[in-house]
Specification:
It is a single chain. By secondary structure, the protein is an alpha+beta fold. It has one domain. Helix content is about 35%, strand content about 30%. The chain contains 1 helix and 5 strands. The protein has a 5-stranded antiparallel beta sheet. The mean pLDDT is about 90.
C-alpha cells in the first residue's frame, strides 16, 4: 500500500485490490481511518477532526486524480 500523499505528518494511502466505495486510508499519529474520495466523508476508524478537515480540503483539490489512482490500483489488484 503506497503512500500517495502526505500532509504534514498525515499519510494518505491507497490499497491495491481494495473494496467498498472509492476511499483512501489516512494514518495520523497512531490513528487510522478510511475517508470516501467522492465526499471527503469519514467512513470508519479514528481520525482527529483537524486532520479530517485537512484531508477533505486536499481531496477537494485533487479528487479526480485520487479517484483515477484508486481505480487504477483496483484494476491491478496488487503491486505493479
Amino acid at each position: 500500500m503506497p503512500t500517495v500523499h502526505t500532509i504534514g505528518g498525515i499519510k494518505i494511502r491507497i490499497y491495491f485490490g481494495d473494496h467498498d466505495a472509492p476511499h483512501i486510508h489516512v494514518f495520523d499519529g497512531g490513528l487510522e481511518a478510511r475517508v470516501e474520495i467522492a465526499t471527503g466523508r469519514h467512513m470508519e476508524g479514528e481520525i482527529k477532526s483537524t486532520s479530517l478537515r485537512k484531508v477533505a480540503a486536499w481531496l477537494a483539490a485533487n479528487r479526480a486524480a485520487v479517484l483515477a489512482t484508486f481505480l487504477d490500483y483496483q484494476k491491478k489488484g496488487s503491486k505493479p
